[in-house]
Design goal:
The protein is built from 10 helices and 5 strands. The protein is α+β, with helices and mostly antiparallel strands. It starts with a helix and ends in a 32-residue tail after the last strand. 26% of the residues are buried.
Length: 414
C-alpha cells in the first residue's frame, strides 16, 4: 500500500471514529446525568458501575480500531476514574459533534451553491443577475478557509481523544512501578535459569565431548606403551595425535560458545564471522552497524545469533542461514533466518534462554516458525548510537564449513 493510500485510509478511519464518538456522546450524557444519580441505591450501584466500564471499553475499542490508539498498557479503571474519563470524553465528543455538524452544514451549502452555479443562478439566492467571477472566487476562498479550519478541528478532536484516554485509561505511576518490579523479578528468574542451563550445557559438552576424547587419548597412549612392535606403536601414536587434535578442537568450540575472545578484541562483526565460518551450511552475514555498541549489547547480540544458528543446525535441517545485524533508531536488530523445516519450539531451553537473556537487556524477542519454515528469530536491543571505535562497516556475506563466500544462501533473502 502506497503512502498516499495509507494516509487516505487513516483519514477515513479517523473520521469514522470521530463520528462514532459523537454518537456515543448522547449515551455518555444520559449515563452521567441520569444513571449516576441512581448510585445512591445500593442494589443498582454494581450494574451502573458495570455499564460505565462498558462505555469506557467501547470507547477504548473505538480508539484502537479507528484512531490507532496503542492500548497495551490499558488498565480497567475503577468507577471514579471511569466517571472522570466519561465526563471529559463527553465534553470532547460534544465539541466533535459540533465540528462535524458544521462540516456537514458547510458541505451541503457548498453543494447547493455549486448546483446554483451550474444552473446559472445566483449563489446564495437573490436576483437573477447571475454570478460575477469575483463572487465565485470569494465564495471559493471562504469555503477553502472553512474547510481548512474544519479539518484541523477534527485533527484537534482526535488528539484530545487520545490525550484523555492516555490520562485516564493508562496505568498510574504506582501501577507502572508495580509492573516494572514484576517484570524485573520475572527477568531475574529467567536469567538465573538461563545461566544454570548454560552451565549444564557446558558440563555436558565437556563430559560427552572433551572428556571422552581425553579418555580415548589416554587409552591409545597406554596401548602404545605396552606395544612391542615399532610399526604398531607408531600407528597408535598417530591415532593419539589425531585424537589430541580433535580434543583440542572440541575444547576450542566449548570455550568459543562460552565467550569468544574475538568479541572483546575485534567486536561483534568478527565474532559473527566466526559463527558463520564454523557452521556446516552456508551462512550469509549482513552487518550494517557503523560503530560498535557497548560490550553488554554486543554480548547479547552475539549469543542470540550464535544460539539461533546452533538451534537451526540441530533441529531445522536448513540448507542455508542468514544473519542480519542492523540499526533502527536507538535499537539494534539481530535477525537470524533459516530455510529449514520450521515448527521451532519457543518453549524449549534454547529459545526460552535467549528470550530471558534479551529480556534482561530490556529488549524484545520474537520467533516466527510456521511448519515447513522458514524460521525467523528476531531480537531488538536498546542501544543508543555511540561514537565510532573502529572500522565496523558493512559486513560481507560469509559461508560456513570453509566453503567459498556466497552472495546469498539458496532460497533465503536478507
Amino acid at each position: 500500500m502506497s503512502s498516499n493510500a495509507h494516509l487516505a485510509r487513516r483519514a477515513v478511519l479517523g473520521v469514522a471514529g470521530l463520528v462514532l464518538g459523537s454518537m456515543m456522546t448522547f449515551a455518555e450524557l444520559v449515563f452521567l446525568v441520569v444513571l449516576r444519580c441512581a448510585r445512591v441505591i445500593p442494589v443498582a450501584r454494581p450494574r451502573i458501575d458495570a455499564l460505565g466500564r462498558k462505555l469506557v471499553d467501547l470507547n477504548r475499542r473505538r480508539l484502537v480500531w479507528f484512531l490507532n490508539f496503542d492500548d497495551h498498557l490499558y488498565v480497567v479503571p475503577d468507577p471514579r476514574r471511569a466517571d472522570s474519563y466519561l465526563i471529559r470524553r463527553s465534553g470532547v465528543g460534544t465539541i466533535g459533534f459540533g465540528i462535524l455538524f458544521l462540516v456537514i452544514l458547510g458541505a451541503t451549502s457548498a453543494l447547493i451553491m455549486l448546483w446554483q452555479l451550474v444552473l446559472g443562478r445566483p449563489m446564495g439566492g437573490g436576483d437573477d443577475r447571475g454570478n460575477t467571477w469575483g463572487e465565485v472566487v470569494l465564495f471559493a476562498v471562504v469555503g477553502l478557509l472553512l474547510l481548512f479550519v474544519a479539518v484541523w478541528g477534527l485533527i484537534g478532536i482526535a488528539v484530545l481523544e487520545r490525550a484523555v484516554a492516555d490520562r485516564y485509561l493508562g496505568p498510574s505511576e504506582e501501577e507502572l512501578l508495580r509492573r516494572r518490579v514484576s517484570e524485573l523479578a520475572t527477568t531475574r528468574a529467567g536469567v538465573v535459569e538461563a545461566v544454570n542451563d548454560e552451565r549444564r550445557r557446558i558440563e555436558r559438552d565437556l563430559h560427552d565431548g572433551v572428556q571422552q576424547r581425553l579418555v580415548a587419548l589416554g587409552m591409545l597412549l597406554g596401548r602404545a606403551l605396552r606395544a612391542r612392535d615399532l610399526v604398531h606403536t607408531t600407528k597408535l601414536l598417530e591415532q593419539a595425535h589425531e585424537e589430541s587434535q580433535q580434543a583440542l578442537n572440541d575444547l576450542r568450540d566449548v570455550t568459543w560458545r562460552v565467550y569468544p575472545a574475538a568479541l572483546d578484541k575485534d567486536g561483534l562483526h568478527a565474532a559473527l564471522e566466526g559463527v558463520a565460518d564454523r557452521a556446516s551450511v552456508p551462512v550469509g552475514l549482513r552487518y550494517e552497524l557503523t560503530s560498535r555498541p557497548n560490550l553488554a549489547t554486543e554480548t547479547v547480540a552475539y549469543f542470540v545469533a550464535s544460539e539461533a544458528v546452533t538451534n537451526a543446525l540441530k533441529h531445522g535441517d536448513p540448507g542455508g542461514i542468514v544473519i542480519a545485524v542492523t540499526r533502527e533508531g536507538d535499537e539494534i536488530v539481530v535477525t537470524v533466518r533459516d530455510d529449514g523445516r520450521g515448527g521451532a519450539d519457543v518453549t524449549g531451553s534454547g529459545l526460552s534462554g535467549l528470550a530471558s537473556r534479551v529480556a534482561a537487556a530490556d529488549g524484545a524477542f520474537r520467533v516466527t516458525s510456521p511448519p515447513g519454515g522458514p524460521t525467523t528469530v528476531t531480537a531488538r536491543l536498546p542501544a543508543p548510537p555511540e561514537p565510532s571505535k573502529g572500522d565496523h562497516g558493512l559486513g560481507e556475506l560469509r559461508s560456513g564449513a570453509g566453503t567459498p563466500s556466497v552472495s546469498s544462501p539458496v532460497g533465503l533473502e536478507v
